[in-house]
Amino acid sequence: MGREIIFLSESSDRSTIKKANDVEIFTLDYNSHKNLQQLGIKHSNAESFLNYDERLWIFNTAKKFHDWYKDPSLNIFELKDVNLLGLLDGIELHTLLMDKLIIFWTIKKILDAKNPDIIECPNEIREIVNSLKKNNSIDIKINSEEKHEELIWDTIDVKHNVLGKPISMKVSRTKYNKLKNILDKTVSSTFGLWFDLKNRNKKTLLILELFPPIYKELLQNLKSDDYNVIIINQRRPVTYNRESIKVLKNSNCKLISKNDLFGEKDEREISETKEKYSQKLLDLWNNNEIFDKIFRINDISFWPIIKNNLKQVFTRRMNDYVESVFFAKKLFSKINISCILSLYDVGETEKVFLKCKNDNVDSFLLEHGFSLLSEDSKTFGTLMSYDNFRGKIIVWSNHQKEFLVSNYKIKSDKILALGSPRHDALTRMRSNRSENKKFRVLIAPTPITQLQGHDTTKIHEKFEKLIIRLCEIFKNYHDVEIVFKIHPSQSGHNDEIKQIIQEYSKKIPIYMLNPVAELIQSSQLVITITPEAWAPSTIVLESMIVGTPIMNIILDEKSYNYEFEYVQQNAVIAISDDSDLDNEIKQIVYDEGVRHELRENGKKFVKNFLKNYGNSSRELAEFLKNDLK
Q1: What's the pTM?
Q2: How confident is the model over 513-530, as pLDDT tens digits?
Q3: For residues 314 and 87, what is the distance between their CA atoms, to the nearest angstrom?
């Protein structure tokens, strides 16, 4: 019998595991590692075969494939000068590439090192093993059933808070869009939110994927009878939330219906075009030579391992992409759109409208999250795509402007430091901490993702141990209560975080949709958990604005966060997870002098850091109004 290795994932059937000395077992994820650890079965974590530099190389390599659709052989998918294959959400594509390339290179290194005769593996990596095995004599056994893989936006996680507990329900993208359309139609008709085409000749500001309650002051400052403001949200409905409806109505911000723009002739043309491009897709998937040439690294094709994912996603979404292009083109031809404001430019909604806009339409990209990039972390910042954005970029601080100019070689006149409109209201928020009978600690974990290639068993293990450790520490503190705020993203790690907390205690409140500002405002201390030191949560900034002391616990071994100016100014306590947490926390909880110093230093930092502190909504609104003149 030859040398055998076994790969295990969460989907593997562990009842067939052999404990023979001549069999090596490699786990591919955290849950598999935990299960084998509990069973006392010797194994290795497959991911340990990739070091940090190799993961960084994979990150940079994945970025090179973001424009894969620009290959001349794929020009047949252009519709009205827009390549439909290029409309896939950029973060979805990058996540898919990172997931596949990380595991691809991991398996390659293990097979090169071990040279096995027999390989047992889960079904989801069968294609990888087949493409990497050096000879046909290797026997491959499958230890799992076929797993249905989805991209981030194939299913939508609809979330609610019920009695302090987050309840989520996953629905398909198709069902979600149908429900959203019904909701938009009902609410907009009831509250008069539909755009009136009688006003189509007025200059119009088009806002993409912006949630009204967060930007309430900006929308109020934009209100005017001299021009229109239209908002298009396809990922998160603006009619789902009562506060959102109120903001839209009070600011005279309107929604637009495809039904108002499409006539019978348009509907027929759209239907025919959908059939045309669906047939092109069917023909395309049979031409592996094109993709083997495009998706190639070091003369190795990785097309077989992503083929099914891309095939499924484009098959499901091609009709949506066709309709979106028609909608965008019709919008620009029927309505006098003068400028576009968006928070991203890599999402599907943003891509469609930015690619379909007329040349005379200005576009503005508004910074949406707290980032203090450094020389060491600037590589990861390229996912924000500032360096590729053709319009003007609006940032929160002079620090960000200077960084973009010096590191990404963006012209200074393309970047405007106007501040953060989403945080104006926070600067005037009064504390209600004294209303709490107990000392409240808000714990805000940032979920682990594979975007930068550092979703590892080690970081998951550290994350789980830290949450349990924090719960244990605070259980022993008199008159102290903890609450958790889960990040409202599509990350699967959020479910893991909730499970860890609930397995420890079902009594600990877990919030997901509650406004984070209100939770910060009602807490005496905020603790953020940061998997990657270069990317602190925006809650760090928001806590300093509100005046709530904050501690940032960092899980990785990089030191970017310790160099941040707010740490140097003692505005935030930044420590690693292997610090003496009990002592560090005890100093803040029981020493008002320490908390006072953190509050004062935090206020000084944000007032100096944010441009137009507390007044950025008006400044941005005035800038946009001038562009509309």
Answers
A1: 0.92
A2: 788 999 999 999 999 999
A3: 10
